[in-house]
Amino acid sequence: MSTSAEDLRAIALTEFATSGYAGTSIHRIADLAGLSKSSVLYHFASKDALLEAVVTPAIERMQQILESMASRPVTKASRREFIADFVDFLLQHRLEVHLFINQGPSLIDVPVVDRANELVQHLADFFASTAMSTEHRMRFGVALGGAAYMLVTQQTVGAVDAPDEEIRSSLITIITELLAPVPVSTHQE
Q: Which Gene3D superfamilies match (predicted)?
């Protein structure tokens, strides 16, 4: 059976998220894939290049969500769409989110991690600029950060044992309720 670059990315993502970037070697990824280290290096020039390949799809998806959100007025409808997109992002990219939340501070000056941190800052800046009070900004932080952290915790300790669709529905409801007191524009709803 042939191991593809996509298979290597999946193995690397799991290892980076569970063992840590620093604790994962190209040799370990090769062993898990049943390949030689040189075979892995044929597909990815270095561990940094593999990390870049592993997390870039998540970064690009978050970039799309942020661009979509920033391109229109904040209304109840656009907020609902953002919440659904954000929850879908978290569910689809939970290992990448796990990697950034738990290892981001130790991966400073790694270009792909810097890109991810810039997006998180952009998200925070956007909501800070649209929120009218400290309480509103805190609601956004607790709602979005709490959802991300809950899924990271689920990944490591099994905090919620439910199908993804049930988790998705619950997270959308909870985030919506946490943000309900935060006013939005009244046009284009």
A: Homeodomain-like, Tetracycline Repressor, domain 2
Are 33 and 97 in the same domain?
Answer: no
Which sign, positive or negative, has the C-alpha torsion 148, 153, 154, 159?
Answer: negative
DSSP 90-150: HHHTHHHHHHHHHHGGGGTT-HHHHHHHHHHHHHHHHHHHH-SSHHHHHHHIIIIIHHHHH
30-82 residue pLDDT tens? 999 999 999 999 999 999 999 999 999 999 999 999 999 889 888 889 999 99
Token pair belonging to 54? 């592993």
Tell me: do 68 and 142 sit in the same domain: yes
Q: Round the average pLDDT of the chain to a whole number and report it.
A: 88
What b/e readout covers 51-65, taking b as 16+ CB neighbours within 10 angstroms? bbbbbeebbebbeeb
Range of the domain at 137: 55-179
Of 4-8, 92-96, 118-122, 184-188, least confident by mean pLDDT is: 184-188
